[in-house]
YndJ family transporter (Hamadaea flava), 262 residues
Amino acid sequence: MTVLVNVVVALGVLAVLPLGFGLIEAPGLAVVRRFWAVGAVPGVVAVWLPRGGIAVCLAVAYLAMTSVLALTAGRRLARDRRLAPLDVAALTALVTPFAGAVALVAERGGVELFGFSLAILALTVPHLHFAGFAAALVAGLTSRAAGVTWLSTTAALAVPVGTLLVLAGYFVGDAAELVGALVLTVGLWATGWLLWRTGVARIAAVTLAATMLLALDWAAGEAADLPHLPIQWMAATHGLANSIGFALCAVLAYRLRKVRPL
């Protein structure tokens, strides 16, 4: 599972995020795009090294770059002073990689941050890059492309809120995580339907229809102590399919369409 998770992290940091930066507008983001590799490459190298001082130093370089990325969200909010659904989606995309980088630094240092196991911290890194950055970005872009309807608003808001609720569930318990998974699934299924209807990325839409059922199965199994796929199989199915079939395909589709940044 470690190799698979590392490959997914590399895909997110070196491909999905740089591609996605061209689809968001925020003060200072052009500078982040220009120097992204300075922090991204060390971050990716860190996940392949044994835990210890060298891996932590490399992960800190990535943390520094994602902190600059998160600051662009603050500058955008200060400039526009609004939190419309599309803004919530864009700001979530800009901030969540920082939280993933914090988890990476802790995991590479062997520190069970907030009491989370090292295995959970390792999985939090790709989760916040894909369910955080990519999903929020695609939900926002798709919502705008579909026009203002209750379904597009649901997509733009439920994905960021669901992602944050899943993260909060780590602290509160499995029941709260299940609520977060339900909200996130509603948001992503709404996004998937709009992706299908608009014809932007139908492969991504089909992928979401299947992978979020797996997410619900896992969350419900954890909350109610029912049989469910083990975490290793979730990474190999839900995680891998979402990273390639949904995130990469959808972001590429929007880049090829040369849409206006969110």
User: Anything to note?
Assistant: Residues 2-257 form one domain.
